[in-house]
Inverse folding.
């Protein structure tokens, strides 16, 4: 269901009199289970593209299909529903709820998803263990390192077993070691659960993990290459 | 506890000082409302009670129809015996028998029509505050016969003083001609013209003799310890009325229709104060919740991106407000209950109220009425006001777009 197809996507922003190009006639297909990196200089449209795929932002023109959804045609509520159940998001800033512990952050999303209270605790614990946070379940975000917080964010994103994870510069605030461990986690999740990953990054070390590397500039795709992943710990 | 309630609760304490200030405003408002409302209800009780204490009592037993027609013939037989019976049935001393007759009173110089009131000197002070208002001479005493106590204005009108005599002409119960002479032993001054112009009290036995009443009178007047006990006492009395007589038991509402309404009509003006208080607190809540929503724009943006709906965020804000209001309610009712409970035990007086009370032979303190109504009415409306005030901040969440919200600093 996670195959993504973008046809002729255009998005412009208006800032005063200035017209800024976010996406400029983008065509792109991503198959189920792919591990894709979007790279490109700042302002090239990576975030805009991810947001369009996740239904956080609506393009001015073009079509996007994500699995069974015609994303550009959905109402706000349908988009929320899609994000809640079928897409996981990981953002650059850790974006956890600061007053909830690691496990509560995960449980909170599960509660919104309508998962029965009895099932939440055990599942949240298992997911946190899977992302390597065993023993840290009751820590608040403020008492965790950036890498640990980002793992909680991943746990939160994958707890409902989405077919697609969209990650916008997830390692930007992590040191090299944490970033490598973090990418290893993504690769493992991609292999074990067949989750499709689309990751935007500036970081060449992150790009090294990708099997498909897409380069953007000025809102256009300028290169789209398959490559042998050569991430450090793969 | 669901994660959402936990989240709502902890969100309150992210800015604990701000939360405490808002809760503090609610507590203050709640305590003030509880105090004002219970004082108000208490003062109605007191005003009604004071007004009844002057003369009419809480309950009277009369001949059926006497209240409307006031006919001399509509009597209560063996009135003193009935009063004694009531005393023992209710277990209170505050019961007195009365008779009432129209007569022409003449002094050496003037004549005036008066309503001559036969009373039991030993019991009348227990049911009426008038005997305590005698300013010259004394009130009637047991064993008195041809003695009379009159109001100060009446005394002036008749140009009589203490020790001087008044002659009475009237008609007895059987329609016969009656006449009598009584000596003024006391002059009563209440400051209320209507009373000072009309009071003329003589011993009941002398009254019965003079107006050929036999052992009859016109009413038995009863005071009970507390306004709330009236219905119960009325029921008891209805059970003890001698069969075959067409007597009726009248409570104060029947005796003085409109009294309650006249006294509680100032409720409307008090409402205004309450509404202002509640609106002020609501604005404080509005301000707090608006700030708290605005500073969390980014966080809410993330929640929206995760698939939460604006309605769910709004509910979160509602829950936070509810928790805050519940805290204000709990603390407010607790403190308010302690305060009013204390005041209802020791009483509460405005400056100068004591002297005023002494002057009118009335209680100098008021006692707040503590009840579920006075404790919870105000605070419940405050909770409602707080929730209403949270609507605007919550509505703003519906305008939030996830991407813009997350771009916010
Ligand atoms: N909401 C917005 N309002 C105005 N301009 C915007 C908005 N969002 C994006 N842009 C502009 O659109 C262009 C593409 O932005 P985008 O965020 O997609 O780039 P990016 O590749 O993610 O950059 P970065 O690597 O810095 O995150 C940029 O020039 C940006 O300034
Ligand atoms: Mg970006």
């Amino acid at each position: 269901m996670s195959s993504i197809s973008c046809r002729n996507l255009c998005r412009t922003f208006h800032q005063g009199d200035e017209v800024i190009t976010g996406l400029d006639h983008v065509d792109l297909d991503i198959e189920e289970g792919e591990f894709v990196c979007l790279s490109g200089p700042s302002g090239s449209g990576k975030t805009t593209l991810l947001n369009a795929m996740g239904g956080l932002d609506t393009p001015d023109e073009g079509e996007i299909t994500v699995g069974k959804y015609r994303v550009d045609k959905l109402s706000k509520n349908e988009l929320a529903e899609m994000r809640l159940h079928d897409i996981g998001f990981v953002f650059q800033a850790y974006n956890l709820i600061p007053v909830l512990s690691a496990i509560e952050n995960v449980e909170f999303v599960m509660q919104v998803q309508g998962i029965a209270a009895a099932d939440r605790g055990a599942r949240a614990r298992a997911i946190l263990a899977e992302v390597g946070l065993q023993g840290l379940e009751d820590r608040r975000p403020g008492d965790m390192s950036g890498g640990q917080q980002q793992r909680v964010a991943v746990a939160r994103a994958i707890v409902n077993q989405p077919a697609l994870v969209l990650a916008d510069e997830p390692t930007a605030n992590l040191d090299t070691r944490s970033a490598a461990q973090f990418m290893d986690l993504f690769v493992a999740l991609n292999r074990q659960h067949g989750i499709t990953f689309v990751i935007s990054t500036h970081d060449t070390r992150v790009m090294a993990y990708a099997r498909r590397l897409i380069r953007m500039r000025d809102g256009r795709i300028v290169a789209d290459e398959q490559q042998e992943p050569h991430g450090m710990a793969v | 506890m669901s994660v959402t309630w936990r989240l709502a609760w902890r969100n309150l304490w992210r800015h604990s000082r701000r939360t405490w200030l808002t809760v503090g405003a609610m507590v203050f408002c709640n305590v003030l409302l509880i105090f004002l409302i219970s004082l108000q209800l208490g003062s109605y009780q007191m005003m009604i009670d004071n007004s009844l204490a002057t003369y009419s009592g809480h309950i009277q037993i009369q001949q059926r129809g006497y209240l409307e027609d006031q006919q001399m013939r509509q009597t209560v037989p063996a009135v003193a015996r009935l009063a004694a019976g009531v005393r023992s049935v209710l277990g209170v001393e505050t019961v007195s028998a009365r008779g009432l007759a129209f007569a022409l009173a003449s002094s050496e110089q003037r004549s005036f029509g008066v309503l001559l009131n036969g009373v039991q000197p030993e019991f009348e002070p227990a049911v009426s505050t008038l005997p305590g208002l005698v300013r010259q001479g004394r009130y009637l005493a047991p064993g008195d016969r041809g003695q009379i106590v009159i109001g100060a204005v009446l005394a002036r009108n008749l140009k009589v003083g203490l020790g001087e005599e008044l002659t009475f002409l009237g008609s007895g119960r059987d329609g016969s001609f009656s006449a009598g002479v009584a000596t003024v032993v006391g002059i009563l001054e209440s400051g209320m013209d209507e009373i000072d112009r009309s009071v003329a009290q003589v011993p009941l036995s002398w009254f019965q003799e003079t107006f050929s009443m036999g052992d009859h009178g016109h009413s038995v007047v009863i005071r009970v310890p507390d306004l709330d006990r009236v219905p119960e006492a009325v029921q008891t009395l209805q059970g003890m009325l001698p069969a075959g007589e067409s007597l009726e038991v009248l409570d104060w509402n029947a005796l003085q229709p409109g009294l309650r309404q006249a006294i509680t009509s100032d409720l409307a003006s008090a409402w205004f104060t309450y509404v202002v208080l509640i609106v002020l607190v609501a604005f404080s809540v509005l301000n707090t919740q608006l700030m708290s929503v605005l500073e969390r724009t980014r966080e809410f943006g993330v929640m929206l991106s995760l698939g939460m709906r604006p309605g769910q965020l709004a509910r979160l804000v509602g829950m936070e407000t509810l928790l805050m209001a519940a805290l204000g309610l709990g603390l407010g009712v607790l403190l308010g209950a302690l305060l009013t409970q204390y005041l209802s035990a020791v009483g509460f007086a405005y400056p100068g109220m004591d002297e005023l009370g002494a002057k009118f032979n009335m209680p100098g303190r008021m006692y707040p009425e503590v009840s579920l109504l006075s404790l919870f009415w105000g605070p419940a409306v405050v909770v409602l006001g707080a929730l209403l005030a949270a609507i605007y901040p919550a509505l703003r969440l519906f305008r939030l777009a996830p991407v813009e919200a997350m771009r916010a600093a």
